[in-house]
Amino acid sequence: MKFHHVGYLTDNLKNSIESFKILNYKKKGNLVRDNLLKVQIQFLKNSDNHIIELVKPDRKNIGLINIFKKKIFAYHFAYKVGNLEKSLKKLKKKFKIIVNPIPAKAFKNKKVAFLKMKNGFIVELIEK
């Protein structure tokens, strides 16, 4: 597993982009609207190649809306994995799968899956 990004919830992408500019983050790529995952995504990257995924949930995405209401903004870490199914099989012994493998528009329709740790933190696995 190789660390890829931190997922950050927002209700205003423009304001969040401006806020992260102060920390030298710049837009990476175009805004992605993923109707399957019910989110809008904008990646930001700094000169050290650290990536933040700004995630604006659709009103129908109750799970993320509820996390946002709790004022939890940095809510997931994402990792690229060589074999998604094998990684899921290993991690589901300790974590709960909350989103089974699904194509993600932000990753050129490569599959992603989400798991929840016992403390409520979320881990995203991204198929290489």
Concise structural overview:
The protein is α+β, with helices and mostly antiparallel strands and 128 residues long. The protein is built from 3 helices and 8 strands.
3D structure, described in words:
The chain has an eight-stranded mixed β-sheet. It is globular and about 40 Å long. It is an alpha+beta fold and about 130 residues long. The longest helix is centred in the N-terminal third of the chain and has 9 residues, at about 15-20. It has one domain (about 1-125): Roll (2,3-Dihydroxybiphenyl 1,2-Dioxygenase, domain 1). It contains three helices and eight strands.
Instruction: Give the CATH H-level superfamily.
Output: 2,3-Dihydroxybiphenyl 1,2-Dioxygenase, domain 1
Please give the share of residues in helix: 10-25%
Strand order of the largest sheet: 2-3-4-1-5-8-7-6
Strand content: over 45%
Record field, number of beta strands: 8
Number of helices: 3
The pLDDT mean sits at 97
Low-confidence stretches: none
List the secondary-structure elements in sequence, H or E. Answer: EHEEEHEHEEE
Determine the structural class based on helices, strands and strand pairing.
alpha+beta
Give the CATH class: Alpha Beta
Q: Major sheet, described briefly?
A: 8 strands, mixed
Morphology call: globular
* Separation of the first and last Cα atoms: 10 Å
- CATH-level-2 architecture: Roll
**How many structural domains can be distinguished in the coordinates?**
1
**What Rg is obtained from the alpha carbons, in whole angstroms?**
14 Å
Remind me, CATH topology? 2,3-Dihydroxybiphenyl 1,2-Dioxygenase, domain 1
